[in-house]
């Protein structure tokens, strides 16, 4: 579920197990954001999906004085801000996954990272500020950004190490933690996604690039060299 502030375009992404969860997620989100910003939510807009148009959702809005508007049936352009945001997040996440040859089951991490980055780099022309600058009241620091899907090395401070054991474990960088100052990485040894601040990055090396390159080159059939000695074959300069 994607939630967008219509004024400064700050975006939240909430991942749901099923379509029965939006009411619980939205109610807790409203409570949290209203306490954080000390403001009341005046109006929300959604489509006519059953996850939004139901009695618990309407009762919550009436109880808290929130006006719930709907876009017309089969007219998504009436909710164009959210539709464009959905498309932007989807396209950006797809590009991040395929550019780095990652498995598709990392799609949620890619969408979450795309949302995190967009909140800090996109400038709204009317305000001449990023969403982060308007929402948080200060300019964002992006010096800690790294390439999604790059190889990283995680300090192993969990297990008991012997004198000559490796101190770091290889992993894949997946994004940034929302609740702590830490990176989200996929540990290639434990096959688990974990959060850690003690990470070294190799931004030039992609997660699964080497494996896929080996497989692709294995399928290439090089013809016999029938050219003259002074001529070079077109395969000689290939990587």
Question: Would you mind describing this structure in some detail?
Answer:
- With 239 residues, the chain is an alpha+beta fold.
- It folds into two domains: 2-136, Ribonuclease H-like superfamily/Ribonuclease H (Nucleotidyltransferase, domain 5, 2-Layer Sandwich); 150-218.
- Helices cover 32% and strands 21% of the residues.
- The chain contains six helices and eleven strands.
- It has helices spanning 22-37, 55-63, 80-99, 107-121, 131-136, 209-218, and strands spanning 2-4, 11-13, 43-46, 67-70, 123-124, 129-130, 150-155, 168-176, 183-187, 192-196, 199-206.
- The protein has a five-stranded antiparallel sheet with strand order 10-9-8-7-11. Strands 1-2 form a two-stranded antiparallel ribbon.
- α2 links the parallel β3 and β4 (67-70).
- α3 (80-99) packs across α4.
- The longest helix has 20 residues, at 80-99.
- The protein starts with a strand and ends in a 21-residue tail after the last helix.
- Residues 209-223 and 225-239 have low confidence and may be disordered.
Radius of gyration: 24 Å
Largest sheet: 5 strands, antiparallel
Find the count of extended strands (DSSP E, 2+ residues): 11
CATH architecture of the largest domain: 2-Layer Sandwich
* Backbone shape: elongated
Q: What integer is the average pLDDT?
A: 85
Give the count of structural domains: 2
